[in-house]
Model the fold of this input.
Amino acid sequence: MILDKGTIVANRYKVHLAIGSGSFGSVYRVHDLTNKDWKAMKVVKKMEAINESYIGERRMLEELRGVRGVPVLHDFYENGPYEYLILDLYIGDLETLRLKPLKPKTVMKVAIEITKILKDIHGKGFLHRDLKSANCMIPYNQRNEKLILIDYNVGVKFGVPKNPRTQSLRRLPIPTRDFAFHKCIYSALRAGEGTGCQETEDLEQLIYLLMETRDIFPFYGTAEEFAQQKKDFRQEPASFLTQSNVFLYPVIDVILKQEYGVRPDYRKILKVMRFNGYIINENAPFEVKTSSTGKPYIE
Done:
């Protein structure tokens, strides 16, 4: 669905311009005529529930409200087959803000922040399943957050919390082959094979994201070819890294050793990320600079 500039939604949100689009919908910069603020409005088509695990992006955001690193759903409207989600605007994503390979120290800060977000999302019983640099946003720091993980279109509910203190879960059946993961270069291997995803698949995508921030793109060709490449990577990940990128190996190794279908050892994963030879201030936001052409970037 395409909205023209000047369109007013729900007698409140005036469309200014389109700022993004994808297979699941479009995103617009809108002016809130009530409080004079600027917001993002995501327009998505309603999808049929596959089973109790797939509840759609709007309900996921509602159930994850207050979780660090998850977008705030300020408002939503329904109109026929479409949902309009009112969200925050961001400075940019890790794909467009990267002018060249990120410095190792920045990469490890990204690793730590995303792992903490995944830990909390998983603890609530949800999987993201679409982790990539374009879905990791640098915020304007309204809530003192460092990164925001967006786009829960293919996210699923994989568990119901049994004990909030320990974050133990009663696991639910996960849909398989519900999306064309086998055609997606950055999807986890099991997702592409049609095996139900678990926390380990989100973490596997984190590996690929970190490699991407260093301009490492090891998978290519047909779906069958990059599926085999992912199998080869799991067997010998070090062979895919150049000398300047071997700092990633301990992180890759600890993630790939996590057991499928069992809650990951996030404490161990974060320890490996933190003890990497770099002094990382986890309380500080990412430093966003401005190029000579006026483009924001991080390094």
Remarks:
- Residues 109 and 280 are 7 Å apart (CA to CA).
- The chain has two domains: 15-28+38-87, 92-297.
- The domain at 92-297 is CATH 1.10.510.10 (Transferase(Phosphotransferase); domain 1).
